[in-house]
Amino acid sequence: MCRNNKVLVIEDDKQRRAQLDTILSFLGEEAHFIACGGLDEHIAQHPEGGDYVLILIGDRCSAWSEALVEKINRWNDEVALAILGDDEADYQDFAPDLKIKVIGSVALPITYNPLVDILHRARLYCEAQSANKKRAQRRPVHLFRSLVGTSREVQDVREMMTQVADKDVSVLITGESGTGKEVVARNLHYHSARREKPFVPVNCGAIPAELLESELFGHEKGAFTGAISSRAGRFELAEGGTLFLDEIGDMPLNMQVKILRVLQERCYERVGSNKTVATDVRIIAATHRDLESMIGEGSFREDLYYRLNVFPIELPPLKDRAEDIPLLINELVSRMESEKRGSIRFNSAAILSLCRHSWSGNIRELANLVERMAIMHPYGVIGVQDLPAKYRHVDYEEESFVVGGSTSEASGTAVVSMNDTPLLPEQGIDLREYLTRLERDLIQQALNDCGGVVARAADKLAIRRTTLVEKMRKYELQR
């Protein structure tokens, strides 16, 4: 967790300074103020970065530039920047790694809500940067993510993978497009005795039928028009390792015969050569098609099917494991943060809405949505109203209820967004009772999340510890 908690304000205007000092003091934030030309001196006095979570820079500061952002980034790479003013165009042309550091602007005149929102986003940025530093040993990319989950379906897949990973037999992975078939294949390879040898994927549906034989087995010079030199095929490149034949159902029949021969005799010939080459390759195949139906239609060989289907693994569609969606979102966000491509959070109502979606594109569709939201709302908190229309399965009244309370379908992920705007019921509302209940519930959630540690809960709620203790006493809440 990011421990930085100070705010640095670079501003010459005395009136803005006074306004910010008043609001930041009310929020319990420790603020330091320096003049526009005083940054170099301040950096010299605080070479360790100063424990700042946010730097607010006046839009009238003549030093404001990409060079200034780069200087601050070298000094403190965990701190976020925001502009005091309405003009966000000043940083749109910055280099990507510097542009992402500027998380937005605070509109003038300065008011409470925009400042609270920018502070929240700054803490998310700081937490993401801090986590990146701690992630010294990243998991290999092929051990990602669609295997994340606690559903019975995913546990069954993991159990089957454990049984077959170190067995040198062919595996057939089936499932809808986007469910993570290549991820499973890479995991099987990584946990086998062949892990030090290559893993070579081939998408049989993406290679023209007339080129597939050359792609798999290689060719000799002059074997066909355009073969100006000899070329190794995928079998040769995968020697000693694993060859992953993705979308095996799209392979033409004449090639199916040749793959069957390799599986039976462990040898092949390059195109244009009569020399037989022995091979030691484990084959893992995958398809989203129903191969048994294709056998009945005569478009897939039955003998090849049984050679490939020694150990079948079927991956469940995402709609059948909706309880894994919050964990998958966390993994996808962690991946973006580790690759320094930004960060984002979803409130509990948005996650509940996503859990109700049908996900025809499965995990690939979910990953696409998370990346799109991170681009549109960098370091923001996504509510239902921020989601594309087809993902909105929770109405506004239900959203306000979920955000104020909790949901079993998205437990542990409840977040309140400053952008959430609950609608006033037609019959009206007791505002004082509503706000009291909302404040009490959020304090209790913070205490639960932090194991009853008041200081950590106060930090999570962005209030002083003494203020939290008083509110706990007021609502008779226990640690």
Question: Any key phrases for this structure?
Answer:
479 residues; alpha/beta; Rossmann fold; Helicase, Ruva Protein, domain 3; five-stranded parallel sheet; 19 helices; 16 strands; 43% helix; elongated
How is the topology of this model organized?
Elements: E1 6-10, H1 14-26, E2 30-34, H2 39-45, E3 52-58, H3 66-75, E4 80-84, H4 96-99, E5 102-106, H5 112-134, H6 152-164, E6 171-174, H7 181-190, E7 199-203, H8 209-217, E8 218-219, E9 231-232, H9 234-237, E10 242-246, H10 253-265, E11 267-269, E12 276-278, E13 282-287, H11 291-297, H12 302-308, E14 311-314, H13 325-338, E15 345-346, H14 348-355, H15 362-376, E16 381-382, H16 396-404, H17 431-449, H18 454-461, H19 465-475
Organism: Gilvimarinus algae
Keywords: ATP-binding, DNA-binding, Nucleotide-binding, Transcription, Transcription regulation
InterPro entries: AAA+_ATPase, AAA_lid_NorR, CheY-like_superfamily, FleQ, Homeodomain-like_sf, HTH_Fis, P-loop_NTPase, Sigma_54_int
